Amino acid sequence: MAEFSVAIMAGGKSSRMGTDKSFVPLLGKPMIEHIIERVADIGQYETLLITNCLDDYAHLGLSMYSDVLPERGSLGGIYTAVYCSDTEYTLTIACDMPFVSPDLLRYMTTLIDTDNEPYDVIVPRVDGYPQGLHAIYSKRCLKPIRDCLDANKLKVIGFYDAVRVRYIDENEYTRFDAKRLSFYNVNTPQELEEARHLFE
């Protein structure tokens, strides 16, 4: 199987949470630590952390990178992750997805190797919408992403038409995550409280 990296994306401003959502407590530990645990053993070559607050995350012991192109939103974070990765493929996971399924992530990585032309993006869709911060990207995405960034087109999936995408729809991923909790984002205090109940 092709080597891949995992990149945890922690570059957001957490404006709706009111504080850095990576560190809000969830069952006795910061939310980002739940994510680190869930991606710890899925076969990756390395685990990266994409953040513009290096000092705040230093205690986690991960290789950290700040945005190559500042103030470019989530798409800029994806660009940084793929650019800084030592492998051809990078699996990106947002820091506010505490229920990511290791089994689903492992399944996604099995789709990297194909008999035909390899995919550039491997991404689940929820209700038809791609989950761009729960996806695998190849180095071949760098140029089309950069073209979007240079044009200030910051939609995460805005470059998908320029690359080869493998979508994973509900009938395929629910055998790994029947309740679709992998894609549950914790952006607000209300969603945090709901996540606590879901964990319990």
Description:
The strands form two sheets. Strands 1, 4, 5, 6, 7, 8, 9 and 10 form an eight-stranded mixed beta sheet that branches. This protein has a two-stranded antiparallel ribbon with strand order 2-3. Helix 3 runs antiparallel to helix 5. A hairpin with a 2-residue loop joins strand 2 and strand 3 (29-30). The chain starts with a strand and ends with a helix. It has 200 residues and is of the alpha/beta class. The model has no long low-confidence stretch (mean pLDDT 91). The protein has helices at 31-38, 54-57, 73-84, 102-110, 142-150, 170-173, 189-199; strands at 4-9, 25-26, 29-30, 46-50, 63-65, 89-94, 121-126, 129-130, 134-138, 165-168. The protein is 28% helix and 20% strand. The protein has one domain: Spore Coat Polysaccharide Biosynthesis Protein SpsA, Chain A, CATH 3.90.550.10.
Features:
globular, 8-stranded mixed sheet, Spore Coat Polysaccharide Biosynthesis Protein SpsA, Chain A, 200 residues, alpha/beta
Task: Provide the domain count.
Answer: 1
What's the CATH H-level superfamily name?
Answer: Spore Coat Polysaccharide Biosynthesis Protein SpsA, Chain A
**Shape annotation:** globular
Put simply, the count of helices is: 7
- Within the CATH hierarchy, at the fold level, what is the topology? Spore Coat Polysaccharide Biosynthesis Protein SpsA, Chain A
Helix content: 25-40%
